[in-house]
Write a structure and sequence with these properties.
With about 250 residues, the protein is mainly alpha-helical. The protein has two domains: about 20-95 and about 110-155, no CATH class; about 165-249, no CATH class. It has helices spanning about 10-15, 20-40, 45-55, 60-65, 70-95, 110-125, 130-150, 155-160, 170-180, 185-215, 230-240. The longest helix has about 30 residues, at about 185-215. The radius of gyration is 25 Å and the shape is extended. Residues about 245-249 have low confidence and may be disordered.
Length: about 250
Amino acid sequence: MKEKIYTIPVNDAYNTACKCPLCALKRDVEKYALDYYLGPSLMEPDTRKLTNSTGFCGEHLAKLYEREINRLGLGLMMHTHMLDLEKDLKKDLLAAAPTPGTLFKGKDRDYKKNLDALADRIERRLHSCIICEKIDFTMDRYLDVLLWMYFEDAQFRARFSEYKHHCLPHLAFLLRGAGKYLSQNQASEFVGALVKQQTEGMAELASDLEWFTLKFDYRNKDKPWGTSKTAIPRAIAYLSEEGGIQNGD
């Protein structure tokens, strides 16, 4: 099938040598988003309105800072975001401390509920992130494309089937997508193939982990490692999205 502009990123991800192509795709989406919010867009009123009210999670704030390509722009964006945060929370923070009980005034039975409600608001702001939202939206669009390609592009379907496993978080992502975008018959075919890959991959990984531990027995000292030498980093990559260790190295 001839590539279309919306299929190219998905094809590129499945042509990489990484353990989980969806992790590679997500990293590309994240890189684009980080560059976008440190680029000319940060001076656009509509963008600043969103960054002021939505902000960034701690992980993406750190990644924006680490890029070192536009510290002035990041500073301007953080300044107006902080002003929005102050406007949103300051009044309630100043009124947060409960009034002490007195002989003539009983206990404020609602103070715990009020403190919990304010803490919830603060945590919602902490977890609110315009980059996370952009990643989630874009990955959902790519998921729709991936599932369409699986049924319409025989070459892609064959390439998809070559992967022993995706990481566990992206297995959940694919299963949820199958329920969202596929008919019952399509889901039966796709999930059946996906589960076969995953169970085989999990069994191989578990076997490699076992042999890795058994290699520390002196009786196995001179026996070959096989593929078990990289079992731990591969298991980390499988159990946690991106795994913190790329390519099982």
